[in-house]
Amino acid sequence: MKNWIQKTLVVAVALLTFGIISPNHTIWENLLDDKANQKTISSQNTQHTYSVEWVDDRPSTFIEDAIEIAKEQSLLKFGSRIGPVITDEFDEIIFPKIQEAIQLSLIDMDNESLKSLAISENPSGDHSEKIFHIYDTVTGSDIIRFHVRTDRKPQDGYFFNFHYHTASDKFAKHFTLGDIYWSKNMPPKWLS
Fold first, then answer.
1. How many other C-beta atoms lie within 10 A of the C-beta of residue 162?
2. Is the pTM of this model over 0.70?
3. CB 182, CB 158: distance < 8 Å
4. Is the pLDDT of residue 111 over 90?
């Protein structure tokens, strides 16, 4: 390789990588055509091979992501008509319980099992309950389902009942997260 091309390349890489790749690195030595053969012959006895493998041993990675996506899906479900009215109370009372439910349901899973989990998108609209589900992408089966139901209590008005169901009891039990009062008037449809 021409000397001026090599110098230009070294300067360009140094500027682009903010000096992370140094000019005297082994990669630069191999770029020299006429010197590459000589260096290979003289360094064959001392040549080392390195491999890098990224391992993420943190089991909480999916859990942290799930909590963030849970918040987004919840706000999406509320829409622009319900959201501004209940978001503050949801953030203070309901969402910490959603976080806790996610953590308790998934914390005992191994890393391989966590890697196959996903969160459903597109919460149900109209008067349907579904906010989001956490499911296994391999089997397609749900692990935990988060819902909100509109309840009408006589003389009190309408409430939003936040709850979840787990696969451990085949989604039979209703785990209440809390209620948020709407008003005596019927609330708008979800996603509106």
1. 24
2. no
3. yes
4. no
